């Protein structure tokens, strides 16, 4: 049965009325059962034939039996394809009613044999006809016209036969009682059929309402998904347009830092660098969400002692907490060995500590690690403002911030807890939030405990050497970015060649082969950094190269990953840029992207 209706122009129409839908369903039911009904009807006819063979003219019995079986064949031929025929609905219903009526007349004509039958044989025929009438309530779903077309000729004929056919012992009381009982049985069956059909209509009404609600829900879901996709596209586009000039400004600021300037100017430059760093952090949060939603954030879980990392996080946040007059307590044992990805865990705990300090105006912030059975519970707790119960389900939503209507930029974009939730799911790490308004908030992470013997020793961090004096080819269609990159890299002693498009890069590389290529992802027209690097490697197969992009769209992130190229996102700090260049020069051409901790941890800072 169809469950949706669509006009030629694709717009949704209301489902047909319930009675119409019910009649359609009745026709489909009859069509499904038309192959099952002939068996009991045919067997009943053969039983009557055998039972009355010596009491009733045999030619009449044979003719009646053939008529009954033939009527079933006609019904099977016409009804099985009736619901899908090209006839109008009114004509289909008319055919169903006529066939039901003829079927009732043929089967009910068995009462014509009453004159030659014994009382027992009459009773048996009456039982058979009554049983077939009762069965018609189900096979017609109680449809008033179809049921009555069959039941009236059968039961009225049976009632009349008992009334006019003399009883063998001459008892008019028995004949009259049987005639009356047939009429009473017909009335009861008609009431049951009416109730059955009413239930069908009500069920169709409920299904129509469910269809309507489902369509509304589907439409609302499509609108929400479209709005979410539009938001993502807008953020990706806005992020790209903001990242380009910010990247240029970052490079110029870094280049200026390498020059000798007076103390007053250096203080101004330091403040500029701090402001740029704050902007980079906010744009990086947007990038984090894109990476997590694109599914390209990898997990490298292992047994590790996270105690030094947790202590380091506390130490890094202590000055910020002290500035706000808060006490920051780190209750961590010397050895806390868990099985997880330590870089992602550091990002999660760092975000939770940031949130606790931001929203705690006075009192205490704790970071604790507790062993509970075979698990370790990491707990970040504060005595801050707390979260109202109505807001508990919203704090993990993107861009949602409690008690920040003025959108104070120092409190971030409202993505911290969204990133925490996504990363905790990625790590299969249960996260719970408990908060009371005016009392404080407690966030708990549950990690599987590991054996201390399984944890590798802590690797010593070795500072990267200074960037070697090399020849760099910078490919970017933004003139400001090219000039800024040249200014910074030349101030560090590198030789820099600039190109605005792939053809220019190919020509310059053929004249003076570079040591490494720094290419923008998105170039003019159909060009891209990936395509440009592939062409350059046709001339110089072992050419190290990396991408620098302001594009955070999910498809671009996946494309860069599949191309096996390291990609940094604008704005890039000078430290991250230099380290990435060093790694690229050291590793050369890769078959798969190598992720640094800055790239694998969602923040990149």
Poorly predicted regions: 1-18, 405-414, 457-465, 589-605
Chain-averaged pLDDT: 77
Helicity level, as a percent range? 55-70%
Q: Could you give the order of the helices and strands?
A: HHHHHHHHEHEEHEEHEEEHEHEHEHEHH
N→C terminal distance: 58 Å
Rg calculated over all Cα atoms: 42 Å
**Beta strands, count:** 12
**How many alpha or pi helices?**
17
Walkthrough of the structure:
The structure is a single chain. The chain has 605 residues and is an alpha/beta fold. The chain has three domains: 22-215; 301-448, Heat Shock Protein 90; 471-589, Response regulator (Rossmann fold, 3-Layer(aba) Sandwich), CATH 3.40.50. It is built from 17 helices and twelve strands. It has helices spanning 18-33, 38-51, 58-79, 89-108, 119-139, 144-164, 172-257, 263-294, 307-323, 342-358, 416-426, 479-491, 502-511, 529-539, 554-562, 574-587, 597-600; strands at 302-305, 326-331, 337-340, 363-372, 375-382, 431-436, 440-448, 471-475, 495-499, 516-520, 545-549, 567-569. The strands form three sheets. The protein has a five-stranded mixed beta sheet with strand order 2-4-5-7-6. Strands 9-8-10-11-12 form a five-stranded parallel beta sheet, sandwiched between helices. Helix 5 runs parallel beside helix 7 and helix 7 packs antiparallel against helix 8. The protein is elongated and about 135 Å long. Residues 1-18, 405-414, 457-465 and 589-605 have low confidence and may be disordered.
């Amino acid at each position: 049965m169809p469950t949706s209706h669509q006009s030629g122009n694709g717009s949704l129409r209301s489902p047909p009325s319930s009675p119409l839908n019910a009649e359609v369903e009745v026709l489909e039911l009859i069509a499904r059962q038309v192959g099952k009904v002939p068996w009991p009807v045919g067997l009943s006819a053969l039983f009557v034939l055998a039972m009355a063979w010596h009491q009733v003219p045999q030619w009449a019995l044979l003719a009646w039996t053939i008529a009954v079986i033939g009527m079933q064949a006609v019904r099977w031929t016409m009804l099985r394809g009736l619901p899908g025929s090209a006839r109008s609905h009114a004509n289909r219903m008319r055919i169903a009613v006529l066939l039901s009526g003829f079927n009732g007349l043929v089967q009910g004509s068995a009462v014509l044999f009453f004159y030659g039958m014994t009382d027992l044989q009459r009773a048996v025929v009456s039982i058979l006809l009554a049983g077939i009438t009762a069965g018609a309530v189900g096979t017609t779903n109680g449809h008033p016209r179809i049921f009555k077309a069959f039941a009236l000729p059968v039961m009225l004929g049976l009632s009349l036969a008992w009334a006019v056919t003399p009883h063998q012992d001459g008892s008019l009381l028995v004949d009259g009682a049987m005639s009356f009982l047939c009429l009473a049985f017909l009335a009861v069956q008609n009431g049951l059929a009416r109730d059955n059909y009413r239930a069908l209509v009500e069920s169709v009404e409920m299904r129509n309402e469910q269809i309507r609600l489902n369509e509304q829900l589907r439409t609302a879901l499509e609108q929400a998904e479209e709005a979410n996709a539009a938001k993502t596209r807008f953020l990706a586009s806005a992020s790209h347009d903001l990242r380009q000039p910010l990247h240029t400004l970052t490079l110029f600021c870094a280049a200026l830092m390498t020059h000798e300037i007076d103390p007053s100017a250096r203080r101004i430059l330091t403040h500029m660098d701090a402001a740029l760093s704050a902007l980079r952090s906010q744009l990086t949060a947007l990038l984090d969400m894109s990476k997590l939603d694109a599914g390209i954030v990898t997990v490298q879980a292992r047994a590790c002692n996270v105690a030094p990392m947790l202590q380091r996080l506390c130490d890094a946040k202590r000055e910020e907490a002290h500035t706000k007059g808060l006490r920051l307590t780190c209750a961590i044992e010397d050895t806390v060995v868990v099985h997880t990805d330590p870089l992602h865990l550091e990002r999660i705990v760092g975000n939770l500590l940031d949130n606790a300090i931001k929203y705690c105006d006075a009192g205490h912030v704790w970071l604790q690690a507790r062993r509970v059975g075979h698990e370790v519970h990491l707990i970040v707790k504060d005595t801050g403002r707390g979260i109202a119960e109505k807001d508990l389900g919203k704090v993990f939503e993107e861009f949602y911030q409690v008690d920040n209507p003025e959108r104070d930029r120092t409190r971030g974009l409202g993505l911290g807890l969204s990133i925490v939730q996504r990363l905790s799911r990625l790590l299969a790490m249960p996260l719970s939030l408990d908060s009371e308004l005016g009392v404080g908030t407690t966030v708990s992470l549950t990690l599987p405990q590991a054996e201390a013997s399984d944890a590798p020793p802590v690797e010593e961090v070795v500072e990267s050497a200074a960037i070697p004096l090399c020849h760099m080819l910078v490919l970017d269609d933004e003139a400001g970015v090219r000039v800024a990159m040249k200014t910074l890299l030349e101030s560090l002693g590198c030789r820099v060649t600039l190109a605005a498009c792939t053809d220019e890069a190919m020509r310059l590389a053929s004249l003076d082969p570079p040591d490494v290529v720094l290419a923008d992802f998105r170039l003019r027209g159909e060009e891209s950094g990936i395509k440009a690097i592939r062409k350059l490697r046709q001339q110089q197969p072992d050419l190290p190269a990396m991408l620098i992009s302001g594009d955070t769209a999910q498809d671009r992130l996946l494309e860069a990953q599949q191309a096996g190229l390291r990609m940094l996102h604008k704005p890039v700090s000078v430290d991250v840029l230099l380290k990435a260049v060093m790694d690229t020069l050291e590793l050369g051409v890769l078959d798969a992207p190598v992720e640094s901790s800055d790239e694998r941890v969602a923040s990149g800072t």
